[in-house]
Write the structure tokens for this entry.
Amino acid sequence: MCQSPDRRLNPLWVRLQDVSAKAAVWALLAGVLPLNLLAVGCSPHTVQPVVLPIDPPAIYGETSKLVRGADDGGRWWTDFNDPHLNELMERAFAANLDLRQAFARLEQAEAQLRVARAARRPTLDASASVGRSRQPTPLFEMVTADHYALSLPAGFEIDLWRRLASLSEAARLETAASKEDLKTLYLSLSAQVADLYYLAREQQSQLALTDRLVASYADTLERVESRYQEGLVPALDVYLARQNLATARSRRPPFEIALAAAEHGLAVVLGVYPERDLIGPPAALPLPVFPAALPSMLLARRPDVEARLLRLQASDARVAAAVAERFPALRLTGDAGAQSDQLRDLLGSGNLFWNLLLNLVQPLFDGGRRAAEVDRNRALFQEQLAAYHQAVLSAFREVEDALVAARAGEERLERLAEVESDSAAALQLALEHYLAGLSDYLPVLAAQSLYATAQSQLLTARRQLIAERIRLARALGGDWMEGQVEEDLPATHGRSPS
């Protein structure tokens, strides 16, 4: 039986052991590092291509004048040429609370990305311990001893199957999707501000119209009362004229309520407590045109659709990570430090130690957990794929709906303008006949009611057409949000991870 030489009698043996240990370490590093380099890009999962089941149409089905012309994807609301609206937009972008929440979610996604990337890097910790123990010796004497240790444990997982790389890629795609969500919110917010602004403008115009009608009916009442006093008309005409005036006055409160509600809603969007007088003095309702451009440009300008695509790709990356989880994991751990029973001798050369361990783990039996996780992630990918296809179809539907609504709104506005013109002429003629004694008051009463209704409907139709064009601008998306996001990013978001 071979016996090892006494180390005290053979210093050469000690040196040979040290040399052998060092050689083993360097051999291990020389073998592991090239293996890690060769393993880069080796994934057991094939990236799934994303293909639309149906190619997008070459042209929109709606053939109104709105589909002609070029859409530059810029700040669409500037086409209204309303400085007050432009100011409200800037205030909303600066203080809206939904935007602040979205920025916080983007920051969370960026932090999660840094966490995922950190898993691919080596770890190094510092460990220190101090202890005292009391134990009996073989001669039953109690010995008290101190123990001091200081070490630097390190670890690194060699990503043979790109599991960590896939998780990092999924986090990167989720971060990009969060940024697209933020752009979607900017687009929705711009439409919400414009909608509320012009809704308030309409109610403001309705109040001004009501005041004009009240003044007109009051003037008519004075004329009827004057003719009654002269004995030219019966008392019934006076009562009908008073009734008409009271009806006109009763129209005012609902418009006041609607105006206050629109302004209060606009204030909350601006990030302030509900207040009034946000829209400025009365002004006409403009009707800008937003060309729809080509369908081929739609998907590139819809951030919500892009977010769906990014999350679909992230889902595929998580499938790759789940598949890689079923393959062997290779981890390299090491520890170096010193230990001693005397604090002053802790860093002495005789108290230093180190160790290096290469650990290979192959899952053998887990009750089907890893296989089920792969199946779950693949099913999730199919769900996200269907959701992406649905988002594409919905985007085209929204544009087509907005185009049809805008065209129909234009036709309705033209018809109502004719009604308003004809009812104005009818009222003028009925009033002339009444004052000339050629007819009773009922035709005047009917003509006043029709004219008031036509004017009010014309204002509502004009505002609704503005709303449909805002809806179209929102459905078309744009590329202005990218610059707005970069402009409004807080100082902690100097740049988004790529």
